[in-house]
TrEMBL record:
SUPFAM superfamilies: JAB1/MPN domain (SSF102712). Residues 14-134 form the MPN domain. It holds the Pfam family Prok-JAB. The keyword Protease applies. One of its GO terms (molecular function) is zinc ion binding. SMART domains: JAB_MPN. Keywords: Hydrolase, Metal-binding, Metalloprotease, Protease, Zinc. It comes from the Bacteria. GO terms for biological process: proteolysis. This is M67 family metallopeptidase. InterPro entries: JAB_dom_prok, JAMM/MPN+_dom, MPN, VirAsm_ModProt.
Length: 144
């Protein structure tokens, strides 16, 4: 999968449909107490499709996706004529901010990284662009 054509990150905004946001929250809640993870795709810079992935680490503090599962999802994204525009994962007990491991192990600096925290009673969802060791907050906009 090549670079995304996501105009949202260029403008400092990540667009996601309300439907995908709800599915993302549900998936991450189901996986507690472990971190959940997945991919996001869409067109025109809007995350319209969610691809829940298996966290092969089965850990509350880290996540990793199976490379074969990633390749398969990239093929499905291509078949849908969508762009790969985001990665999401949860922090069951930590804040919605990239951990050292999230930053160091990042393989996709060109996409948005959404993190949902369950540290408080209300889940908190935030987005970042991770470039090298730098973390840039990205505004989230929810659309219908």
């Amino acid at each position: 999968m090549e670079k995304t054509n996501d105009p949202g990150l260029i403008s400092g905004t990540f667009y996601i449909t309300n439907h995908v946001r709800q599915k993302l929250i549900s998936h991450c809640k189901r996986e507690l107490p472990y971190e959940a993870c997945g991919l996001l795709s869409g067109g025109n810079g809007i995350a319209e499709t969610i691809w829940p992935m298996e966290n092969v680490n089965r850990s509350s503090f880290s996540f990793s996706m199976d490379l074969d599962q990633i390749r398969h999802v990239f093929e499905l994204i291509d078949r849908r004529n969508e762009d790969f525009i985001g990665i999401y994962h949860s922090h069951p007990t930590d804040s919605a901010y990239p951990s050292e491991g999230d930053i160091t192990l990042n393989n996709y600096p060109e996409v948005g990284h959404l993190i949902i925290s369950f540290a408080n009673s209300t889940p908190e969802l935030k987005c970042f662009q991770l470039t090298g060791k730098k973390v840039f907050p990205i505004q989230l906009k929810f659309v219908n």
